[in-house]
Design brief:
The chain is built from eight helices and eight strands. It is an alpha/beta fold. The protein has a single domain, classed as Aldolase class I (TIM Barrel, Alpha-Beta Barrel). Helix 5 runs parallel beside helix 6. The protein is globular. Bound molecules: D-xylitol-5-phosphate (DX5) and zinc ion. Zinc ion binds next to strand 2.
């Protein structure tokens, strides 16, 4: 099975978001990755539920909302009502991981946890049954266009092993600095979903990267 590719709209042209979504749809995107930042958990402020709702009416793509916000329990229902299929919260942003994950499921979405580069995988030990996805941050959250941090590769391998040995149906997503050079090691380590922002929207022939990444699995 090939990896799924989730282009991040963070690096898209925000004055033509509709066209950008149609462009990734036409070029083989599996999911659309929506980076939500609140100016508190990370310094930037990006999109809110109104944008998610507008896009929902224009695309059938699976909407992958990555909440880089403090106290995600206060916001997640709005994103689910707006049409997000999956809500991923940052482990570091809540003291009540179990409760927040249950709240996401209750509201009718799939639930994910994102781990910052310095956060160990072991924090997931007691929440595995609540998870649909684990997101390994391969940059520090807050901006697109940063360099991939190779020290996260053993964490990806460890998590892939955990998912396999526990026979779980959990996606393993990697986000940050993904491009043709960094993707092979990430796929080899066991990732099942790759997020790519600047490499898709800012590079020349970036749209080709979507299918290039999907084909990569077969040649590794
Ligand atoms: C970073 C975001 C990423 C980002 C990825 O805080 O979570 O999704 O947009 O961008 P690239 O692919 O440019 O590293
Ligand atoms: Zn993201």
């Amino acid at each position: 099975m090939s990896v799924k590719v989730a282009p991040s709209l963070l690096s898209a042209d925000f004055s033509r978001l509709y066209d950008e979504v149609k462009r990734i749809e036409a070029n083989g995107a599996d999911w659309v990755h929506l980076d939500v930042m609140d100016g508190h958990f990370v310094p930037s402020i990006t999109i809110g539920p109104v944008v998610v709702q507008s896009l929902r009416s224009q695309t059938d793509l699976f909407m992958d909302a990555h909440l880089m916000v403090s106290e995600p329990d206060n916001h997640l229902e709005q994103f689910i009502e707006a049409g997000a299929n999956l809500v991923t919260i940052q482990f570091e942003a809540t003291a009540h991981l179990d409760r927040v994950l249950r709240k996401i499921k209750k509201a009718g979405a799939k639930a994910g946890v994102a781990l910052n580069p310095a956060t160990p995988a072991s924090v997931l030990e007691y929440v595995w049954p609540l998870l649909d996805l684990v997101l390994v941050m391969s940059v520090n959250p807050g901006a697109g266009g940063q360099a991939f941090i190779p020290e996260v590769l053993p964490k990806i391998k460890y998590l892939a092993n955990q998912i396999h040995s526990r026979s779980l149906q959990v996606e393993l997503e990697v986000d940050g600095g993904i491009n043709l050079e960094t993707a092979p090691a990430v796929i080899k380590a066991g990732a099942s979903v790759l997020v790519a922002g600047s490499a898709v929207f800012k590079a020349e022939n970036g749209m080709d990267l979507i299918n290039d990444l999907k084909k990569m699995q077969n040649v590794l």
